[in-house]
């Protein structure tokens, strides 16, 4: 008589470790889906924040355009997960780069456009951009890094 706990297969004859790996991939895909949705919401915040804080025209348009881009690109990645497609590594890498731009843009523009005491943005918008840029860059880079397994296998998210 054999011990069933020592047998690596279940009643259907499938390998338990394969089932465990499939469950792990599914949970990873779900995590990336919700992180992509969160990054998309951060992009929406970046786009509307100049209207809530005092900002010069250059900072306003930079935030609106880059924030809308982050919102749409991360939203596209969220949609890909809903439709059982793998994470787009290129899209999330671009979102990470846009997050870095949001992080440095208040300082890059302040040096160029601070003429005759004109400030690019109020302190609230600068800190909002710094925090949103850091969160966007880190989360998008993590999603892209974690999605490498989907790219290598070529499998839809949460399968195999």
Per DSSP E runs of 2 or more residues, the count of β-strands stands at 0
In total, the number of domains comes to 1
Anisotropy-based shape:
elongated
Query: How much β-strand is present in the residues?
Result: under 5%
Low-confidence segments, given as residue ranges, are 113-118
Assembly type of the shown chains?
Answer: single chain
Kindly report the average pLDDT value.
79
Q: In DSSP terms, counting alpha (H) and pi (I) runs of 4 or more, how many helices?
A: 5
Radius of gyration: 21 Å
Largest sheet: none
How far apart are the termini? Answer: 33 Å
Strand and helix order: HHHHH
Helix coverage percent = over 70%
Label the structural class. Answer: mainly alpha
Description of the molecule:
The protein contains five helices and no strands. It has helices at 16-52, 57-82, 89-113, 123-146, 148-153.
What topology emerges from the helices and strands here?
Blueprint: H1 16-52, H2 57-82, H3 89-113, H4 123-146, H5 148-153
């Amino acid at each position: 008589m054999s011990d069933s706990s020592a047998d690596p297969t279940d009643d259907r004859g499938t390998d338990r470790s394969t089932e465990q790996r499939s469950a792990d991939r599914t949970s990873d895909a779900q995590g990336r889906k919700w992180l992509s949705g969160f990054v998309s919401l951060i992009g929406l915040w970046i786009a509307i924040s100049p209207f809530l804080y005092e900002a010069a025209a250059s900072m306003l348009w930079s935030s609106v355009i880059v924030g809308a881009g982050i919102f749409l690109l991360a939203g596209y990645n969220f949609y890909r997960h809903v439709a059982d497609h793998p994470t787009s590594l290129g899209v999330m890498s671009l979102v990470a780069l846009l997050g870095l731009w949001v992080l440095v843009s208040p300082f890059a523009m302040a040096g160029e456009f601070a003429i005759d005491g004109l400030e690019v943005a109020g302190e609230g918008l600068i800190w909002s951009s710094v925090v949103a840029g850091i969160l966007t860059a880190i989360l998008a880079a993590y999603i892209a890094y974690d999605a490498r397994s989907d790219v290598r296998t070529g499998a839809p998210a949460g399968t195999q």
